UniProtKB/TrEMBL annotation, chain A:
GO terms for cellular component: plasma membrane. It comes from Anaerosalibacter massiliensis. GO terms for molecular function: ABC-type oligopeptide transporter activity; ATP binding; ATP hydrolysis activity. It is found in: Cell membrane. This is ABC transporter ATP-binding protein/permease. Residues 30-312 form the ABC transmembrane type-1 domain. SMART domains: AAA (SM00382). Keywords: ATP-binding, Membrane, Nucleotide-binding, Transmembrane, Transmembrane helix.
UniProtKB/TrEMBL annotation, chain B:
Its main location: membrane. GO terms for cellular component: plasma membrane. The keyword Lyase does not apply. This is ABC transporter ATP-binding protein/permease. Gene3D superfamilies: ABC transporter type 1, transmembrane domain, P-loop containing nucleotide triphosphate hydrolases. It is found in: Cell membrane. It comes from Anaerosalibacter massiliensis. The chain crosses the membrane at residues 16-39, 74-94, 149-171, 177-196, 258-283, 289-308. It comes from the Bacteria. It is a multi-pass membrane protein.
Length: 605, 599
């Protein structure tokens, strides 16, 4: 997904809304501003100290008072050092605290957003919102304030000091400030844009490396090495050119600023020098003016930089807040929450027990693109029944399960659980009673024990072992070096798919759910494990209402009812033998697979 | 310092630019340090009445019209000052652009060399490679080196010349004052160096904490279905909060340390300037030092301290660059395949003979043990056998992804090993089981081997591979982007794309390495029929478990444990006892059953 650069102008009303998130740190912000005012004033005072030294000691050729001058200077330095400590620490504190809490709010939001939100968003895209965007936002806010207050105070102080030293000289030397400011704003924006382009190309280069590495085997078989390299060379050349262009722009800025500064110095030297000769001002004042002309460009540069950075932070902030302010779509009503609680404060004592009767009543449903997946779909499932759904990809079988789990809600019609519309119950009530096993089993970093316990956080070790035994996972687990304490790796990467699948079975079983969903759960298990799982499934599903989606028909041949779904409609239904004798779609599917599976078994011995 | 040597190798191409950029650094520094001298002379000798103590400056003043003239026309000094600044600015500009140009050149050649090297590493390297780690080396390690060359190298150079020039001028102006001014330079340098080396560890910890935070985030987002189905929102939030606050606390710890560093070093530096001011005033009051000299010293002092403080930091960063160079070297030292060694490019028709071929991965047990068979051009060879029997290894030998250990493979009578890899691969179309598609449009992916092919060819190939209808159903049709930024194709669609891009080039030898496994039976049949029509000239290898797929082959090989246990045609094999017959029986008995049911 392309990053949008909709940050042409600084949007003040947007930042006003942002203030809500900055409010908890009001005290810190105030203190930080005070410290920065202190820093800037002292920075502006130092040239005055030079002036004082020149005028009192050097011109008068006396050392009277030099000691007390030195002590004063030392105290000023000490205060400044303390200031420096405070502003870094406080700005840092604001930065990390704000990042922490916005990230927290964002994460909490992500947990309750409906699955439809995730449909058209890549994980990487969401990750970038939650990491780099939030970092940039909080960084710009905290350190931006530092630079802003410092820059403004510094400019004001210098101006005040200069005017109080000598009005005319101040006016003359300060005349370089307006062009300096204009040029600074212009350049800072250009610089930022140039570097943003570099970063974009850089990410394309990383993408190219990714392709180079993961596609290397294919490259070899296609003998594409030379073409790949020449395409890559185009990218690196583009990278080189845009990097150099960015450097050219940014290194043009400094000489121009220096030039304007030196014009200021020259003006000070010329007019100040004449004034010294005429004894209109002191030597010290001249030197102070020269110092100030050198010092002045720093705050101007900082302010211009903040201006540019704020624009880019605004783009980040807009992306972050669009996530935080996203509509929930699937939401429990106030009445439901009052009676049964929500995800975070469930009132379990008020929950009715689930028996497991499920009914789809006149359900119509479409995902965002308005093509209807289900239309006037009806289905009744008695408690404890096993329903298998068969059909091609896109037939609607996954949608039925998605609706049952309330990951999506129907556009029209009702889904009744124990004869009550499930929208009259909280989502958490249904989910706490749900056992769910996915086609590609997803595990979390941690031990096997942790992962199984995910199904029931209160479960004892004994419960966990019992669940593992039930799904035949126990044997392979204890054969591992660390048994149940074996780390599964990121996303379970240290285990085979079959092993992950068994663990995800154990995890679901541990919940002792009333409704069980197997979403193509056995497709990634080898034949032998599948045989084992076969018995397990029978045991596990006993007494629970269950929905099975599977490619492998052997998995579902024992279901009470098999539904063949085509284009959102049930075209065949019945048990295995009934459907076989119909010799329709199911029969064809079954025979094809039967041949394939049996052949595999014979060949693999 | 082997690392430095290898970085110099990469820099070779831009030697002259590097030289120019160093020259610019010297000149920029020179013009920077001259300015304060001019101001000093103006204060002391033009506005004031002191004699000019430097010969060169005296010459310059005389050239500009002499002291008295200038006293009435100080603006001339101002103009000179501006000219000096313009010169300084010019060389600063040159320094930055030249050093960036040279650094970018170097980074470009490192990137290209890495890219090319990686794609030419042998097949087995890629089978085992840790993709994430390798990408990290190509992106962040190269970036570290680029920064080192573009920024750090130049800054260290600049600081060094700055130090030399300023020290030289200071000692010439006033030895005792120079000694006072330089007093803290070594202290602050050592302090910065020690601080930043110590703090590296915390930088690392912060990085790791951030890594753990993103892992939790990523696992949560990829597993959001599981989180929801198990109603584990609170649990996940708690887990995330732990990592989030750990990251926050560690970052703050780092920032606090930096606060100490900057406040202490600021204190030292400002005290140093104070000391210069106090001692200068003392000596000036006693007449041992002129006002202008003191002003010059104060200006020089601030020019001196900042770079010294930065240097400590840069030097520790340079340590990282050395590590990065080492990591990149490691990749570049892996031996690559030589694609054209004997320049043997025989015309390939497709007669193949295997004679007692043995092959094993690295030092492990052989996976092929004495394979022999003959195929005539245009014939179809089907291979079946259990997982690990050596089927894939056998066909991987044909395009020389691996080389056999002993025995002989002859293509049209020429020993395979003597044919250039590049040439043989162009003549063997291999469809992998898990094909990789490039992040390009579907059209470009299909004609990836030959971008000049026209659309008609592309459509034909897509139709033969039964993927044309799928493509047409996409909004942008053949212009649909594949991969992360475009559509994600199913396993079966990817396999069919791979078939299309392979058959479009009409190689004399084509290999399907179980490449229809994710395609359903009906599509499988359709593809095979389409291929049969096209496949008049190609020698074809098919690996499959489906009897229906292999039964029309001219030669069927049944492999087990690296050996051919059965060979023949479908007709002869179903009369022999063995795996083939058993598989066939299952199928036919089932077909009997179907017929029974039909009756």
């Amino acid at each position: 997904m392309e990053e949008m650069d909709h940050n042409e102008k600084i949007n003040f009303s947007f930042w006003k809304n942002f203030l809500i998130y900055a409010k908890p740190y009001k005290k810190y912000f105030l203190f930080l501003a005070l410290v920065m005012i202190g820093v800037a004033i002292i920075d502006a005072i130092f040239p005055l100290m030079n002036k004082k030294a020149i005028d009192s000691f050097i011109v008068n050729k006396t050392t009277v008072g030099l000691n007390s001058f030195a002590i004063k200077y030392g105290i000023l330095v000490l205060i400044q050092a303390i200031n420096v400590w405070f502003f870094i620490a406080i700005a840092g504190k604001i930065e990390v605290k704000m990042a922490y809490s916005i990230r927290k709010i964002g994460f909490e939001k992500l947990q309750v957003l409906p699955l439809s939100y995730y449909d058209n968003k890549a994980v990487g895209w969401l990750m970038a919102r939650m990491t780099s965007d939030i970092n940039r936002l909080s960084e710009t806010i905290s350190w931006g304030l530092v630079d802003f207050v410092w820059g403004i105070t510094m400019m004001l102080s210098i101006t005040v000091v200069m005017f109080s030293l000598n009005m005319k000289l101040a006016l003359i030397t300060l005349s370089v400030i307006p062009p300096l400011a204009i040029i600074s704003v212009y350049f800072q924006e250009k610089i930022l844009m140039a570097y943003r382009k570099v970063r974009k190309i850089n990410s394309r280069i990383t993408g190219a490396f990714n392709e180079d590495i993961s596609g290397a085997k294919t490259t070899k078989t296609l003998v594409r090495e030379e073409k790949n390299l020449s395409e890559f060379t185009e990218l690196t050349s583009e990278m080189k050119d845009s990097s150099i262009r960015a450097v050219c722009i940014s290194s043009l800025y400094l000489p121009i600023v220096l030039l304007l500064g030196s014009i200021g110095t020259a003006l000070a030297l010329n007019f100040g020098g004449k004034a010294v000769i005429l004894k209109a001002i002191s030597y010290g004042t001249l030197v102070a003016f020269i110092n100030y002309t050198i010092q002045f460009f720093e705050p101007v540069r900082e302010l211009a930089a903040i201006f540019a950075e704020l624009q880019s932070a605004q783009a980040s902030a807009e992306r972050v807040f669009s996530l935080i302010n996203e509509d929930l779509e699937i939401e429990d009503t106030i009445e439901v929450i009052n009676q049964y609680g929500d995800f975070f404060n469930p009132k379990i004592e008020n929950w009715p027990e689930i028996k497991g009767e499920v009914e789809f009543k006149n359900i119509s449903f479409s995902y965002k693109d308005d093509e209807k997946i289900l239309e006037d779909f009806n289905l009744h499932v008695s408690p404890g029944e096993t329903i298998a759904l068969v059909g091609e990809t896109g037939s609607g079988k996954s949608t039925i399960v998605n609706l049952l789990c309330r990951f999506y809600e129907p556009n029209s019609g009702k889904i009744l659980i124990d004869s009550v519309d499930y929208r009259k119950r909280p989502q958490v009530w249904l989910h706490e009673n749900l056992g769910y096993v996915l086609q590609s089993p997803h595990l979390f970093s941690g031990t096997i024990m942790d992962n199984i316990r995910y199904g029931n956080l209160e479960a004892s070790e004994l419960d966990i072992i019992r669940a593992s035994k039930l799904v035949n996972a126990h044997d392979f687990i204890i054969k591992l070096e660390n048994g149940y304490d074996t780390e599964v790796g990121e996303g379970g990467s240290l285990l085979s798919t079959g092993q992950k699948q068994l663990i995800s079975f154990a995890r679901a079983v541990l919940r002792d759910p009333k409704i069980f969903v197997l979403d193509e759960a056995t497709s990634s298990i080898d034949t032998e494990t599948e045989k084992i799982i076969q018995d397990t499934i029978q045991k596990v599903l006993k007494g629970r209402t269950s929905f099975i989606i599977a490619h492998r028909l052997s998995t579902i041949s024992n279901a009470d009812k098999i539904l063949v779904i085509k284009k959102g409609k049930i075209i065949e239904s019945g048990n295995h033998s009934e459907l076989l004798s119909k010799k329709g779609y199911y029969y064809r599917l079954y025979t094809n697979q039967f041949i394939e599976e049996k052949s595999n078994i014979v060949i693999d011995g | 310092m082997r690392e430095l040597k290898s970085i110099f190798n990469f820099m070779k191409g831009s030697k002259f630019i590097y030289f120019l950029s160093i020259l610019s650094i010297i000149l920029a520094t020179f013009f920077t340090v001259v300015g304060p001298l001019l101001i000093k002379t103006t204060i002391d000798s033009i506005i004031g009445n002191k004699p000019i103590d430097s010969e060169q400056l005296a010459k310059l003043i005389n050239f500009l019209g002499g002291k008295v003239f200038l006293k009435n026309n100080i603006w001339i000094i101002g103009i000179v000052l501006i000219i000096l600044t313009i010169l300084r600015g010019m060389f600063l500009y040159l320094k930055n652009t030249l050093s960036s140009k040279s650094a970018e050149n170097t980074a470009k050649s490192i990137r290209e060399e890495l890219y090319d090297h990686i794609q030419k590493l042998p097949y087995e390297y890629h089978v085992k490679a840790d993709t994430g780690e390798l990408i990290q080396r190509c992106s962040s390690d190269v970036e570290t080196i680029r920064r080192f060359l573009a920024v750090q190298f130049v800054e260290v150079g600049g600081s060094l010349f700055n130090l030399i020039f300023v020290a030289y001028i200071m000692f010439n102006l006033h030895v005792k004052m120079a000694l006072v001014s330089m007093a803290v330079v070594p202290i602050i340098f050592v302090f910065a160096f020690i601080f930043f080396s110590k703090v590296q560890k915390i930088f690392l910890e912060v990085d790791e904490a951030e890594g753990r935070l993103s892992t939790v985030l990523q696992e949560n987002l990829t597993g959001i279905r599981v989180v929801k189905a198990f109603a584990r929102q609170s649990y996940e939030i708690e887990k995330f909060d732990k990592k989030n606050s750990q990251y926050r606390d560690l970052t703050f710890k780092l920032i606090k340390l930096l606060a100490w560093y900057w406040s202490i070093s600021d204190f030292i530096c400002m005290m140093q300037i104070g000391a210069v001011l106090a001692m200068g005033s003392l000596w000036a009051a006693k007449g041992q030092l002129s006002l202008g000299t003191l002003v010059a010293f104060i200006t020089y002092e601030s020019m001196l301290l900042w770079p010294v403080r930065q240097m400590g930091r840069i030097l520790t960063d340079m340590g990282k660059a050395i590590v990065s160079i080492g990591r990149i070297e490691e990749v570049l030292e892996e031996p690559i395949e030589i694609l054209e060694e004997n320049h043997e490019k025989p015309q390939i028709i497709g007669n193949i003979s295997f004679r007692n071929v043995y092959f094993g991965y690295e030092d492990k047990e052989s996976v092929l043990k004495g394979i022999s068979f003959d195929v005539k051009a245009g014939e179809t060879i089907a291979i079946l056998g259990p997982t690990g029997s050596g089927k894939s290894s056998l066909v991987h030998l044909l395009p020389r992804l691996y080389d056999y250990d002993s025995g002989s493979i002859k293509i049209d009578g020429i020993e395979l090993k003597s044919i250039d890899k590049k040439w043989i691969r162009k003549n063997v179309g291999l469809v992998l089981q898990e094909p990789f598609l490039f992040a390009k449009t579907i059209r470009d992916n299909i004609k990836i081997s030959n971008p000049r092919l026209n659309d008609k060819k592309v459509f034909e190939a897509a139709e033969a591979a039964s993927i044309h209808n799928d493509i047409s159903s996409f909004d942008k049709g053949y212009d649909t982007l594949v991969g992360e930024r475009g559509v994600s194709l199913s396993g079966g669609q990817k396999q069919r794309m791979a078939i299309a891009r392979t058959i479009i080039v009409e190689s004399p030898i084509v290999v399907f390495d179980d490449s229809l496994s994710a395609v359903d039976t009906e599509t499988d049949i359709a593809i095979r029929e389409a291929l049969n029509e096209r496949r008049s000239k190609s020698t074809t290898f098919i690996i499959s478990h489906r009897i229906s797929t292999v039964q029309d082959a001219d030669l069927i090989l049944v492999l087990d444990n690296g050996k051919i246990v059965q060979e023949g045609t479908h007709e002869t094999l179903i009369k022999e006892d063995g795996v083939y017959k058993r598989v066939y029986n299952i199928q036919s008995s089932f077909e009997d059953n179907i017929e029974e049911v039909n009756i």
